Fold this sequence. Notes:
The complex is a heterodimer of chains A (517) and B (230). Chain A is α/β, with parallel strands linked by helices and 517 residues long. Chain A has 4 domains: 2-165, no CATH class; 180-271, Helix Hairpins; 285-405, Rossmann fold (3-Layer(aba) Sandwich); 436-511, Alpha-Beta Plaits (2-Layer Sandwich). Helices cover 60% and strands 10% of the residues of chain A. Chain A contains 20 helices and 10 strands. Chain A has helices spanning 2-15, 17-31, 38-59, 66-91, 94-108, 115-129, 132-141, 155-165, 167-178, 180-205, 215-226, 239-284, 297-306, 321-329, 342-346, 364-377, 390-399, 407-420, 422-432, 501-511, and strands at residues 288-293, 314-318, 334-336, 354-359, 382-386, 403-405, 439-444, 466-472, 479-481, 494-499. In chain A, β8 and β9 (479-481) form a beta hairpin. The radius of gyration of chain A is 34 Å and the shape is extended. The two termini of chain A are 57 Å apart. With 230 residues, chain B is of the alpha/beta class. Chain B has helices spanning 16-25, 36-44, 58-62, 79-92, 105-114, 122-135, 137-147, 218-229, and strands at residues 2-9, 26-33, 50-52, 71-74, 97-102, 118-121, 153-159, 181-187, 195-197, 211-217. The longest helix of chain B is centred in the middle third of the chain and has 14 residues, at 79-92. Chain B is 37% helix and 25% strand. Chain B folds into 2 domains: 2-125, NAD(P)-binding Rossmann-like Domain (Rossmann fold); 149-229, Alpha-Beta Plaits (2-Layer Sandwich). At the A-B interface, α13, β5, α18, α19 and β7 of A face β1, α1, β5, β6 and α6 of B.
Amino acid sequence: MFKDIIVKFAFLINGSYSYRKVKETASNFLQNQDYHYKKYFDIFMISLIIVSITILVYEVKHTVPEWMDFFDIYIVTVIFTIEYLARVWVYNDWHLLVVKEYGESQFLNRKFSLWKPTKIALKGKLEYLFSPTAIIDLLAILPAYRPLRVLRIFVLFRVFKLLRYTKSINQFLSVLSSKKFELFTLLFLLLFITITAGIAIYVFEEQKNGNINSLFDALYWALITISTVGYGDISPVTTEGRVVSMAIIITGIAMISFVTSVIVSAFSEKLTELKENRIVEEINKNEEFMIICGYGQMTRMFLKHYAIEYKRRYIVIDNNREKVEEAIKEGYSAIHEDASRHDVIAKFNTDYAKITLLALTGSDIANIYITLNAKALSSHIKVITRASTDKIAKKCKLAGADSVVMPSLIANRMLFSAITQPVMYKAIYAILTGQHLAQLDEINVIYHRKLVGKKLDELNFKEHKLLCIGLQVGRSGEFIFNPPMRLHLQEEDILLIMGRKVSIEHFKTLYEEIRYV
Amino acid sequence: MFKQKAFMFGYSQERLFLAHELGYKLMSFIIVVNDKEAYKKALKDGYTNVKLLDVTDDIALEKLEVQENDYLICVMDDHYLNVFLTLSLHELFPKAIVVALSDSPHTTQKLKMAGASKIIDLYQVSANRIHNILHKPVATKLVERLLSSDEDFSFKEMAIPSGSSLDGVMVDDFDFSRHGVILVGMIDKRLSNQFIFITSGLENRFDVGDTIVCIGYNKDLEKFEDYIKL
């Protein structure tokens, strides 16, 4: 009976869209580094921690106002507690395990055991509860308990809690963890020498040195000396003691140099990776960005003309380190990776951001593979692929490319126009290369609301030194070349105009809607 | 059929389309190559007027019967050689029109200095096209239609013949939309031999000998061409 209720409840939760949505949102806020709004949550938590630490530190020597105490005890602590419980909640899904176990037991005609999924779920939760970050979270709640002043020491854990929200410290720790073996070896060596030296000084000076009264004093002296701090509160008085001192001072210097070199080498090894991860994290903060695969001539030309327009909302990926270094030298954001690898594109925020991927490497095969890779990851990624021939262009389309660019085809058409229609060529060249003296541009009426309902005739194209080439009619998408001037513009229409860049910009400004943020 | 005579220097996979179009539409079209493989390929593809010569040799180049206003298209795969060839051709045939293909702004600059009259930067055009696909999809589609030979929609340049009804008419006074075409620009011989966009704001007058460039549906363009002859 009880089991039935639990199973029903598990199925109910499993089928509930709202439950899933709430849990997914909570998980995004707490765990998903790519979630756009997580940064606001992190900033909020950091501010809360800083405020609470300030209150607790201030309270040591001053009487804090009642409202401040109230804020720290109830607001901060309640938020910390909710956060702690939410993290435990999102760590794993007990109901999924119950549903799975129930399904399997039905399928295999075996007795359903509630304990099995509960045990796995509990094990998972306990695993989380005993993780260092969860312990810090729990201990960070304790200082709020005022009757026990000793708990105030746990204010330190609120400082540690900051670790969760500061990436640089986490990165520092991750770099150190890559040299775990070397650092542990050195630590053991340090302990060994400290203990040996401590015992030696204890044996030599316990009777002769008034400052060394116990083994602890000796070990304390050894550690202070080996670390080259040397407070001077305890110093050797016998020749033997001084010899021990000399030996551990030399060892200490050697060990400090060794530790420093291990940390420095760990950083230099990981520096590029850290920098590249930071670039990816930065780009993932945008709602819309561009991934450019391959730093060849076409990418160079594209960025030369449009990098400013795209601001920092683009990233270049190339599997050739020299090319990446060249791109960085030119001032572009670039990382050394192979864009045809699934995990490389998966690093980007494909779930929430609007991504355009340009597959512009010099190899058709690589471009097709990159296209497939991106489309396999998310069909929402808009892919523009470079192809060298018609046949390859067809393959790119089959692979899912939204548009295909064939440099040789465009060049051939231009060459052909240059020879057969030389006057016209200038017009085409200006339009195709986006020169300032003649640009073909489109005006989305939806972004220029002052145009809604206007008759084309009223827009005085001639006066603005513009040509009205065509009109794409909103919902139907029908394109009218040389539209009649009696037509009225509708909200979703797109107007196609030609003119100097300055004329187009002026016209757009005239009809631009002022947006109030 | 166009009356121009053109020499295309270089014959590669990427230039097959160009060779095909030019071979089909020009009165005289000669392919010049400097390696046997390309020579055999061009012959195999059906071109009869193919010459195999060392393009670095001025004496061999001089033997080509290049006339005034002939087009010399430099599309060699090796861009160093392309620049060198442009320089040689400009020196040997200063009155011919050298059209060259470039792969970077640096090469474009060198080709300009070497004397090329028209340079097409392969990647600049492509980069702009990518930008247009993203930001001006409607305009991009229109340009594609204008450039594609399969479409019924194109650019057309027309010379104003003597006795034309356009002769002496001010540009602003003529209603092109009545003919279903749009005037993009013109060469006003009274002012210069330069192409002027109609949106430049200058007040121009149509005179005999001027060249106008219009866009529109092919049938409207043809009708309009007939109209201006009247």
